[in-house]
Design goal:
- Residues 411-435 are annotated as: Disordered.
- There is one protein chain.
- By secondary structure, the chain is α+β, with helices and mostly antiparallel strands.
- It has helices at 48-64, 110-137, 190-200, 203-214, 224-237, 245-248, 269-288, 292-303, 310-325, 358-379, 417-427, and strands at residues 9-13, 21-27, 30-36, 69-77, 80-91, 94-102, 140-143, 149-152, 158-166, 185-189, 334-340, 346-353, 386-394, 402-410.
- It has a 5-stranded mixed sheet, with helices on both faces. Strands 11-12-13-14 form a 4-stranded mixed sheet, sandwiched between helices.
- Helix 1 (48-64) packs parallel to helix 3, helix 7 (269-288) packs antiparallel against helix 8 (292-303) and helix 7 crosses helix 9.
Length: 435
């Protein structure tokens, strides 16, 4: 992709750092400047090739979540062993096989480098194809970034192959021609990879972007940020998508946020609330020996919250926690926020209560079960429906700001008429609670 192909975007090299560049984006609200930093440095004391794999893993685990990044595994093949990808991303029913190729010798002339890049790209996507085929034939145990093991069944995921290039001097305008392998494929530099994770701070959002970009014509290696901002500009102007009329019948407000924000997803305290909650889930799962598949399911549900909405949700949760802290010791208060996806099949509920205890836990469970029941009764989509409830309760011992409790339910929870009546009387639902 050239600068002229995208009139709304300009690119220029930073004089103080030849490995970085700046995009100047023309938007309806004026110019927006985004500096694209170099890729993370390679770890010291590690050979270049393996070091590039480690650096790619580090970026995904740091800005995404370590639970979604899996190290390569080996399976027996004849008299030898076969490696299943350099790294895998797994989140929300989608998976990416990452094949990292590094130029470990001094680059040659531009034509030679383009030929070498094309050669290793072809090898990379064939290896990705082999990994997916092997995982579909026989599940493999793979360890994630927290050293927890998940049995990966290739038939449970929608796959993409990612060729990830670590190269100090990619010739300008180099476009990889990737052969069809039966799954989507995309070619990126490590700087492209780091940019996407730094920009979105969500493994689910990065996977969604990769699948979206893979069906478009390829762009020059190193120019992925330009394509990102083309998509982001289109998202900013796009009207809200269709809403299931049955969901609209539940009341509340119809909100829409761009899938790809133009500003980097924030690292402010409000945004970090969502990361802290996911860390709570991951670390408490280790302490309580929750099964890895269940932990992955909970984390994936949380990571589906649109990145453009996370700061607002985080600030609201902080406000809700502050509010429930203010009530007298002999009283209790609840605050709720819930979101239903446009299809009406997935619901996310956050609640805050004054304190935690058996009665509060039971009340929280009744609220989540009732709202799930009401949703699938309204839509008639019980088999496809799931609800994740998250309860935050303030801590007073100073060790941490809150405790996190979760409850997930799916399908028809088969509440009895007596339970529905009792829960409804308890919560006296207001239609405006849905959002």
């Amino acid at each position: 992709m050239t600068d002229q192909a995208s009139p709304a975007l300009w690119r220029f090299i930073q004089d103080d750092d030849p490995d970085a560049f700046t995009l100047i984006v023309e938007t309806a609200n004026g110019q927006y400047v985004r500096r694209i930093r170099p890729a993370l440095p390679l770890p010291s004391g590690v050979e270049h090739g393996p070091g590039a794999e480690v650096a790619a893993h580090t970026a995904a685990a740091t800005w995404g979540l370590p639970d979604f990044v899996f190290q390569s595994a080996y399976v027996s093949k004849g008299s030898g062993r076969r490696e299943l990808g350099d790294r895998l991303l797994l989140a929300g029913g989608r998976g990416a096989v990452i094949q990292v190729k590094a130029r470990t010798i001094q680059p040659k002339d531009a034509d030679s480098e383009v030929a070498w890049i094309q050669k290793v790209a072809t090898k990379a996507v064939r290896q990705a194809k082999g990994t997916v085929r092997q995982l579909r034939m026989l599940p493999a145990d793979m360890a994630n970034g927290r050293d927890r093991t998940l049995s990966v069944d290739g038939n449970a995921y929608e796959w993409i192959g990612v060729f990830l290039l670590d190269h100090e001097q990619v010739p300008e305008g180099t476009i990889c021609s990737l052969e069809p392998i039966g799954i989507p494929t995309i070619a990126l530099t490590r700087r492209d990879w780091d940019f996407l994770f730094d920009q979105l701070r969500s493994t689910t959002a990065v996977l969604d972007y990769l699948f979206r970009a893979a069906v478009e014509p390829p762009v020059a290696l190193g120019e992925e940020p330009v394509r990102y901002y083309e998509f982001a500009a289109a998202d900013a102007e796009a009207p809200p998508g269709p809403l299931n009329p049955d969901v609209a019948g539940l009341g509340g407000s119809h909100f829409s946020t761009p899938l790809l924000p133009q500003a980097p997803v924030g690292s402010d305290h409000a945004h970090r609330v969502m990361r802290i909650i996911m860390e709570d889930v991951a670390t408490s799962a280790i302490r309580s020996q929750m099964s890895e598949p269940n932990q992955q399911l909970l984390l994936s549900d949380l990571d589906k919250l649109p990145v453009g909405a996370r700061a607002e949700w985080g600030q609201l949760l902080l406000d809700m926690l502050a509010d429930v802290r203010e009530v007298p010791a002999d009283e209790s208060k609840w605050r709720w926020r819930r979101s239903i996806d446009p299809s009406g099949t997935r619901q996310l509920i956050f609640g805050c209560a004054t304190r935690f205890g058996p009665e509060v836990e039971a009340a929280f469970q009744s609220y989540v079960l009732l709202r799930h029941h009401q949703l699938h009764q309204q839509t008639g989509l019980a088999e496809q429906s799931s609800t994740l409830g998250v309860l935050l309760t303030p801590r007073t011992d100073g060790s941490r700001p809150w405790d996190t409790t979760l409850l997930r339910t799916e399908g028809d929870n088969e509440l009895s008429s007596e339970e529905v009546e009792r829960y409804t009387e308890l919560w006296n639902p207001q239609p405006a609670e849905a959002s």
